Amino acid sequence: MKRIHFTIICLFTMGFIGNASAQLPGLTGQTKNYISTGMPILLIAPDAISSGMGDAGVASTPDIYSSHWNNAKFAFIDGDLGFGTTYTPWLRNLKVSDMNLLYLGGYKRINSRSTVAASLTYFSLGEIQVTDAEGQSRGTMNPNEFAADVTYAMKLNDELSLGATGRFINSDLTNGQQVSDGSGYVSTKPARSLSADLGLYWQHPIDKTQTLAIGGFISNMGAKLSYSDDDTKKEFLPTNLRIGGRYTNEIDESNSVSFLIDVNKLLVPTPPVTVGDSTYSKYYRNMTEYYNTGVVKGAIQSFYDAPGGFSEELRELQFSLGGEYWYKHTLAARAGYFYESTTKGGRQYLTFGFGLRYNIVQFDLAYLVPTTSFSSNPLSNTIRISLIFSLKPKQSTPTI
């Protein structure tokens, strides 16, 4: 059992954003201005395949986890039926043993053009003993979050596909307990929302041995999350734009390599920066105006509303680089690097992965190593495990 004040729960769930207590030196190129959202687990890689390649996956080889990276890839997936699962320990560096992220997914090919898929993401924060600001016990709870979705992907032609996903989201961080907001206690409730994803995927055979793929994916478009009856502080969903590409070379019958790159941009408005008595933002005079921004308006303004101007907008981009090697389509080795600006969270880490495929089963591992000391990561030095079952042997999918 963990003994912890409720506010620490939020730090756990938002831990991958970075050290939010950093001092603002002034509105300069080093000013830290993090973009926080509700339900951040929706952005966490659910598998040990892309996790081993620096979290690059928007144009990776289609697999069971495509609903997270780019749902349009399902239209080009090999095989007729499959499912998979991933187990991700959480905060193991802090010796926390009962916080975990679990992912389950499956797909079924309808015909040569179309595929349907579904997945469930479940995040457990374990059993927590809650205390107030004076250290008095306020009981125990078992906070958790989950998201369930259904996907349809269709080929538009031999090289291009489109995917659409609908998702139900439930975030229960307080189990209905009263929580201090600084001026008193307020009643809380689970936050629920519906969201949608839209993906586009193109893969082109350069010749008999080389393939080029490009993908674009907008995820988690939906209504804000509210944890209480106070509608002035609804949290944005982590709406995200991901674009990237992949180059694959089948060197010979035994060896193949792939290189990937992803670029991410949160489609969430940048909050104003307060330094002393000054508030910096062209669009939001205070946080109340920020929270009142509409979802669509906020997504559009996210491209130009950063208080630091264009240079800050560039710092909001995240980059993933990855590589994968397969030997006889049986053994895989992976490596990658993820970069985020120090002013936007500072997550920077190397990843490594390993894969083994035999008949209908594929087993994958991934390991994350931080490359900086100024930003914590709940997945630091953690092994993630994925298992995939393809109920029919892999075979080339017929094209139109």
Description:
This protein starts with a strand and ends in a 10-residue tail after the last strand. 8% of the residues lie in helices and 44% in strands. It has 400 residues and is mainly beta. It has five helices and 21 strands. The chain is globular and about 65 Å long. It has a 14-stranded antiparallel β-barrel with strand order 2-3-4-7-8-11-12-13-14-17-18-19-20-21. It has one domain (2-20, 39-270, 316-390): Porin. The protein has helices spanning 6-13, 66-69, 287-291, 295-301, 310-315; strands at 2-5, 81-89, 100-109, 114-124, 128-131, 137-141, 144-155, 160-172, 179-180, 185-186, 191-205, 210-222, 240-250, 255-266, 273-275, 278-280, 318-327, 331-339, 348-358, 361-370, 383-390.
Please give the count of helices: 5
The low-confidence runs, each spanning 5 or more residues with pLDDT under 50, are: 1-25, 393-400
Strand fraction equals 35-45%
Q: What letter string, H or E per element, gives the SSE order? A: EHHEEEEEEEEEEEEEEEHHHEEEEE
What count of domains describes the coordinates? 1
Question: Distance N terminus to C terminus?
Answer: 57 Å
Mean pLDDT, as a whole number? 86
Adjacency order of strands in the biggest sheet: 2-3-4-7-8-11-12-13-14-17-18-19-20-21
What is the fold named in CATH at topology level? Porin
Q: Specify Rg, calculated over alpha carbons.
A: 21 Å
Name the CATH homologous superfamily. Outer membrane protein transport protein (OMPP1/FadL/TodX)
What's the number of extended β-strand segments?
21
Coarse structural class = mainly beta
Shape category? globular
CATH class: Mainly Beta
| Name of the CATH architecture | Beta Barrel
Helix fraction? Answer: under 10%
Described by strand count, sense and barrel closure, the largest sheet is: 14 strands, antiparallel, barrel
